[in-house]
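Progress report, Aim 2. The chain analyzed during this reporting quarter is listed below.
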Amino acid sequence: MSSLKLYTDLVHNLLSLINNAAKIVIFTHQHPDPDAIGSMLALSNLLKAKNSNVVITPVLFESLLPKSQIPQGLSLDSIRVARKESDTKKVKKAVLEADLMFIVDASSYDRVVDNPYILQVLDQMYHKTIIIDHHKTGGSKDALLSFNVQVASCAQLVYEIFVKTLKFPLTTQSALAILFGIMGDTQMLRFLPTNESYVAQYVSELLSFLDKVSPGRVLQNIAKALELKLSLHMVSAFKEAISNLRVNGALAGTFISDVYKSALKDNELGDLRLFILYEILAKMEEIKVYFVVRPDLNKPRRYSVSLRSKGNIDVSLIAQKYGGGGHKNAAGCDINADSAKDAFEIMFKELSSLFEDVVSHV
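Predicted structure tokens for the chain:
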């Protein structure tokens, strides 16, 4: 569930301000991390996609991340890096001429720059500044609008505000930037806060979009940029499991296909299964029944199903039907099917039918 329901009025006020702006400047904090860079680039591209005539100036007062830490395909060309005095003067001019300004992944200009000359100018500009930050610090009381929501990443907020709520059109660059920001601050979803696993659905949406418009190793490139030591096969399997995620009411499930039988070891498939169960599905507050299907590495057309539930829902009933067993809230079984997807569909239908009253009322 989105964190922005309390901000509905602010979001629509924001749209009016954007529609009346001809020149916009975007800032983020010094020593930018992937979320800061991703949020800045995503916002810039989304605003430009909405109105090609608006002049967008993303500004950094620090050096960019090294190229090796930027995923392949993500362009930094639009960012103006202000290092010299001449750069600072150009930034001052852009600020004075701007109709609207944004700070992303920070809540005040003293986090944006430490140059007293330009800071003095910026401190006078809160009346036309919009703050978007995922650290719930309250922001500046003088800001035009403040979106301070304590969530996993600022890029997530940018996606929720501009794509999910205001319906700004995604581009390849904005989708890649948002994904980079989310994955950077959550370390590939490893550190999602409790009850924020709906972010996995955002990731699935972004990956599906990128696969349609720009097929390639998007997630592998991000993992490489984040310097995460994961095999390409492991990253690919993770991507597939997220993309295959299906949610219906209080029921959620996903599957890992047969293509990874030869690529991954049994313990790697097991680790991925546990990660999805406990770090993503279990944290989804509205989900009461959830499962993961993966191929049996030793037997063709045989698939292992891991079932979990919350409260008084007994998933061992399904497991026992297929010759498996376990406990009320944690059970497992094997299914014979032509593919992992077929096994997944069988289990999804079974669970939907058996727990119809539970899964249909969240």
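The longest strand covers residues 302-309. The chain has a mean pLDDT of 88. These observations will guide the mutagenesis work planned for the next reporting period.
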